[in-house]
Amino acid sequence: MNREPVSRELFDDVMVPNYAPGNIIPVRGEGSRVWDQEGREFVDLQGGIAVTSLGHCHPGLVGELQDQAEKIWHLSNVMTNEPALRLARTLCELTFAERVFFANSGGEANEAAFKLARRYAWEHYGPEKNEIISFTNSFHGRTLFTVSVGGQPKYLEGFEPAPGGIHHAEFNNLDSVKALISSEKTCAVVVEPIQGEGGVLPADPEFLTGLRELCDEHNALLVFDEVQTGVGRTGHLYAYEMYGVEPDILSSAKGLGGGFPVAAMLTTASVAASLGVGTHGSTYGGNALACAVAQKVIDTVSQPEVLKGVKARSDKLRDGMMAIGERYGVFSEVRGAGLLLGCVLTEQWQGRAKEFLAAGLDEGVMVLVAGGNVVRLAPSLIIPDTDIDDALARFEAAVQKLTGS
Questions:
Q1: Which of 397, 28, 48 is nearest to 254 (CA)?
Q2: With contact defined as beta carbons under 8 Å apart, do 261 and 290 qualify?
């Protein structure tokens, strides 16, 4: 095995250039702290983009992975395995769902959800009922189907022709949905309870309630993309609970594995019946290692004290970032829910979110962006208060330098 030293420059020599990673290479993490090759320490408010839900190298996850690794790693879907069955049972017990399909990523979970929605309509109402309504600025994955359902044309550029039968309404505008929905043609409405990549923009409660009513009226399925909002991120196990609106299909990934690649599509028994034997599949979906780790994540995150702790940490982080925003005139609001927060830049700083990310790294704190106008935070759900304090101090130092204050 080649163990020669590697650097950021090697990325440009050997990797497809679809990413533009920063100059540091993290090599070790513990909790909400990360260290790079030079030993520099960072407080992690990125969470792997809402993925490392219990921080880095959580002892419970490490133990579960090691334990399962000594039993069995992978079979195939020609047969099932114990961790997959246990995890599916747990997800059904804790949510609206009655059936689960496992995959490896949010894009795959959404691909399965959209295929299921079309096939369900095809079986029950005929081939003409195949249209999907999504929303501008939404994000649902990078497969050709999911990027087409997503409402950001930049991600589709150069990959056309896109799959047909997809329409985009305006997020939080129920009238725009009413103008598009059709009992004869619409098979599903797909929505993020909080638009993540689109700027950490929460849905209005009456908007989601209205979508549920419209779907019922037009025999369409309501699909919630909870890839980013799920698994405790909002202070609820899934965000639909916060809104009191049940979808017909829900996609889950990111935080579900705490950093191990795993995803799930949750649905009801009647809808699931349309994916009969051979209609869809995944080589690695339901992998024993992934499901064992995800089981530990769900068992931990679903505890009332953990979910309550998310809300308390949210208040602390939100208040701290808003105070920084007011002192330096950089944020107009901090929106979102739980530990998915978006710090919206003031007019003076519009389009410069990446500068805050870079300035934060220089001061030892890792933040995210959501478009050019929002600094996004998605840390571990159990980040210690002391780490939040440290992160806020480091971020304030970054903002102070950036603004020249």
A1: 48
A2: yes
For the chain, residues classed under CATH 3.90.1150.10 are 8-57+304-403
Domain over 72-301 is classified CATH 3.40.605.10 = no
Report the SS3 class of residue 138. coil
pLDDT in tens, 33-58: 999 999 999 999 999 999 999 999 99
3-state SS, residue 295: helix
CB 290 within 8 A of CB 258: no
Q: Which candidate, 215, 252, 221, 224, places its Cα nearest to that of 92? A: 252
Q: Residues annotated in the binding site for N(2)-acetyl-L-ornithine, as ranges?
A: 142, 282
pLDDT score at 1? 64
CB 304 within 8 A of CB 376: no
Quote the pLDDT of residue 234: 98
User: Could you tell me how many residues make up the chain?
Assistant: 405
375 CB-contact burial (10 Å; exposed 0-12 / middle 13-18 / buried 19+): buried
Predicted pLDDT at 299: 98
**DSSP 8-state assignment for residue 56:** B
Q: What order of strands is seen across the sheet that includes strand 374-377? A: 331-337, 340-345, 374-377, 368-369
Q: Global pTM?
A: 0.96
The alpha carbon of residue 12 and the mean position of all alpha carbons in its chain are separated, in whole angstroms, by 28
CA-based nearest residue to 72, from 293, 287, 298: 287
Closest CA to 296 of 62, 28, 105: 62
For 42, the token pair is 């960072």
Report whether 102 contacts 262 (CB < 8 A).
yes
Q: Is the peptide bond before 161 cis (omega within 30 degrees of 0)?
A: yes
Annotated binding site for pyridoxal 5'-phosphate: 139, 225-228, 283
pLDDT at 14: 95
- Fold of the CATH domain 8-57+304-403: Aspartate Aminotransferase, domain 1 (3.90.1150)
Pairwise CA distance, residues 105 & 85, whole Å: 19
Which positions make up the binding site? 139, 142, 225-228, 282-283
